[in-house]
Design a protein that fits this description.
heterodimer, A: four-stranded mixed β-sheet, 4 strands, B: mainly beta, three-stranded antiparallel β-sheet, 8 strands
Chain lengths: 183, 106
Amino acid sequence: MSASRVRFVSRAAAVVLAPAEEAKKFTDTPVEVVASSVATDTLSLYQRKELTIFEGSRKAADEAFKRAHLTANDIDVLEVHDAFSVLGLMALEDLGFADKGTGAKLLLDGTCNRDGKVPTNTFGGLKARGHPVGASGMYQVAELALQLSNRAEKCQVRNASVGLSQSVGGIGSTVVVHILRSL
Amino acid sequence: MNSTISGVECPRCQWSDFFKAQVCPRCLTELNNTSFPGQGRIITFTVIRYPPIGFEDQAPYVVAIIDLNSGPRVIGRINAKPDAVKIGANVDFAREAAGALEFVLA
């Protein structure tokens, strides 16, 4: 009904995991998982103090940045879970790339463009790719891996070495954040 | 209208909810039964125009998040025409119907 909502689709994505010290046996351009973090929030929206924040996003991002010894300033390419238009904007704010209420500015001023400071959803995100639900988080990681290994072709972000993905379950009741880095 | 909403309250950290939990999700203390005055204010709402199976004869209907004036935030139905419902409107609890709280515009 609403154009704000993503299309559910049937798709598949995959990555191959290996110990970092052995990864070079399989590829010349391995990508390291620097940090993975998951945080939860109440299932019901009414039990939350604020409706314009996903506390799960904030907690997962804070923890991932802490484990990786990195900040939002270090991220070269970003994948956010834009299952609805507003979720992408909320993610920019909750992950620390924009102040609360200013996420849309980053889209308008070009910050999220491929040649901007925080290239975001460089393969189109959930909106343009479609949302295969269980596979969407894996798509994000696979697309970041393509970026960080310089194999993103026409979507390639120049000199991308650190990427972050944010994946949402429920209405923010589960949020997963991964930080990846080219080895 | 003077209907009250039954719920639970934590004797230790004062967390409260209309949902009948046994243990406080915040501090794991056993909850006490209580009731809240039915007056509140609409924080946000949506209109269900494409209802799930079993609710076809009720659509369109309004589902709202409401801050009770003396109690927790709750979710419930507003028994009113969708066009008449506004964020910030005052509501009164009317009854519990099919497991949902039902409010009317004050």
